[in-house]
Amino acid sequence: MTTTGAHRDSADDTSPRSLLWWGRRRSAVLDVGLGLVSAAECALEGVRFSETAALPVPVGVVFGLLAGSVLVLRRRWPVAVVLVSIAITPAEMGFLMGIVGLYTLAASEAPRRVIAALAGMSLLGTLIVTFVRTRQDVATADFDPGLWYVPLVSTVMSMGLTAPPLLLGLYVGARRRLMESLRERAVSLEQELSLLADRAEQQAQWARTEERTRIAREMHDVVAHRVSLMVVHAAALQAVALKDPQKAVRNAALVGDMGRQALTELREMLGVLRSGEEVVARAAVEPVPLAAVGAAAAAAAEAAEAEVAGEGPSLADLGSLVEQSRLAGMVVEFSVQGESRPYRPEVEQTAFRVVQEALTNVHKHAAGARAWVRVAHRDAEIAMQVENGPSERGAADAGLPSGGNGLVGMRERVSALGGVFVSGPTDGGGFRVSAVLPMGSPAESPAV
């Protein structure tokens, strides 16, 4: 059955205009059928009742038809149906209506005290009528069954007409409530699963965004500095190629070394990305529990970050970094205060990247300016500062492209480790970049 067909059938079965209070078409058909059978039964019993009460037969038949047809209302007003059945019990009418009405009342959401009261009234009325009728039959019989016969027969018959529908109705009502409770619970669990899936998708999207940002930051740090120095050396090579061939050869060698270093760092980074892709591919093929998605993504990201941090640069490489800038023609003063000690890999890598990006900005935007690089090892933190004076060429720079993400990337790196980052122009016309990172021991886990 298609969705459209199911919807059409559902609409036909539950149309409020044609079915009144019934929820389904077959429920209406069942109740109408029971009402017709009950009306026919009461009409036949009305003939005997009219003879006993000395009434015209049509009156008894009409009375039976009206009383029996009340069974149609059993789903809407079960209490009224049971009361009508109790009221016509003395006339020995409505046995079907009494049984079905009592069953419907017991299976409904009516209060238990109401069900008990009406069931007791029905039992008592049936007991009295059965007792009187049995006693009359025994009085006209040719034998004497004894004093115990009438009470026993009347009790058994009244219990047989009252107890089975009452117990069956209670069972069906309890089962219906249980099924509704289970259905509501299933709907609630489905909603919770949907919310968890949406939350997992949001976390995955957030993780992808963070990973793209981190990769962009790493690529910027790795490529920008090396390529900037290569451009500076290429410009120097072009300027001295004819005047000083030996210096041109040295500059060409430096350009080659820097290119090889850039390729090495890019190759290491791409290797980490490939390992991350393998993890993602396995996760896409192998089914995993929904609750483990976030943990697996976090573990993969942490492992990738740890691998990058373990293979990345450190504070020991600052001397080589400063020397490369000096070879490019920049006058750089490098000073270290305090005793050097081992830090967490991500702390050393962030400190190196801050100095590297700051020197790259000097090459880009303050060509020929003097620079100062200061590193201070303190008790619980490490501080670094890169400052440059005004450019000797005024407002002109090296003509290198800039995406404007260098300072943003440095700030993000430092803030991720709980540090402080400050940057801005100096009074002397230069620019200063300062960062302070918490020390952290090598054994500590990376900050999340």
TrEMBL record:
GO terms for molecular function: ATP binding; phosphorelay sensor kinase activity; protein dimerization activity. The chain crosses the membrane at residues 53-73, 79-102, 114-132, 152-174. The keyword Electron transport does not apply. Pfam families: HisKA_3. Residues 211-277 form the Signal transduction histidine kinase subgroup 3 dimerisation and phosphoacceptor domain. Its EC number is 2.7.13.3. InterPro entries: HATPase_C_sf, Sensor_HK_TwoCompSys, Sig_transdc_His_kin_sub3_dim/P. GO terms for cellular component: membrane. This is histidine kinase. The lineage of its organism: Bacteria, Bacillati, Actinomycetota, Actinomycetes, Kitasatosporales.
